[in-house]
Amino acid sequence: MSSIESITLDVADPKAANHFYSAAFGLDTQVRLRASEAPTTGFRGFTLSLTVSQPANVNTLIDAAVEAGATPLKPVTKSLWGHGGVVRAPDGTIWKIATSAKKDTGPATREIDDIVLLLGVTDMVASKRFYLDRGLTVAKSFGRKYVEFATPSSPVKLALYGRRALAKDAGVPADGTGSHRLAIGTDGDAFTDPDGFAWEGN
């Protein structure tokens, strides 16, 4: 295993979800969709983040998402780290759109720099070790709070965050049960991590 090849979201209506992701974020090939009625309640244990180059782009993407049917979870705000907001897509997936830039440097666009999958983990030490044992290397680490892995060839970056901290960052309660409604495509063998996230071999 050396990278995420794809992200697949289980959704009730793939056609409607595809329309949303195209209209809101301009995503088509980056996120796959498949029909599923797998039961799930509350926080699914992960978020997807879109990082962009400037605040105007954050505003544009958040506005487009809400117009396409997303529910705002956290309004766009400025903070010490930058500028961002959080929405829940109609299919239930939580998306954060953010930039570390404090000021705009050009006209607003919908250009996305990176897609980051953040997995909420119960035991950071155990989950980090699990992924290191599968061949990943650490790009950034902040103690037991956050780990980002180096996946330069992947269209989606992978990071681990404490489950409760991730839920707080998303603006939702941390409790949740049932399916994650997420499958992560890898270039290696299929496996399931300590928090129940399923990786599927391509």
Task: Give the topology.
Elements: E1 4-11, H1 14-25, E2 31-35, E3 40-42, E4 46-51, H2 55-67, E5 71-78, E6 83-88, E7 94-99, E8 114-121, H3 124-133, E9 138-142, E10 146-149, E11 157-162, H4 163-170, E12 176-178, E13 182-186, E14 191-192, E15 198-201
Parallel strand pairs: 1-2, 4-7, 8-11, 13-15
Antiparallel strand pairs: 1-13, 3-12, 4-8, 5-6, 6-7, 9-10, 10-11, 14-15
Helix pairs in contact: 1-2
What form results from the Cα inertia axes? globular
Cα separation of the termini: 11 Å
Widest beta sheet: strand line-up: 5-6-7-4-8-11-10-9
Order of helices and strands: EHEEEHEEEEHEEEHEEEE
Please state roughly what percent of the residues sit in beta strands, choosing from under 5%, 5-15%, 15-25%, 25-35%, 35-45% or over 45%. 35-45%
Can you walk through the features of this model?
The protein has 202 residues and is of the alpha/beta class. It has one domain (4-201): 2,3-Dihydroxybiphenyl 1,2-Dioxygenase, domain 1. The protein is 21% helix and 39% strand. It contains four helices and 15 strands. The protein has helices spanning 14-25, 55-67, 124-133, 163-170; strands spanning 4-11, 31-35, 40-42, 46-51, 71-78, 83-88, 94-99, 114-121, 138-142, 146-149, 157-162, 176-178, 182-186, 191-192, 198-201. The strands form three sheets. It has an eight-stranded mixed sheet with strand order 5-6-7-4-8-11-10-9. The protein has a five-stranded mixed sheet with strand order 2-1-13-15-14. A hairpin with a 5-residue loop joins strand 6 (83-88) and strand 7. The longest helix is centred in the first third of the chain and has 13 residues, at 55-67. The protein starts with a strand and ends with a strand. The model has no long low-confidence stretch (mean pLDDT 94).
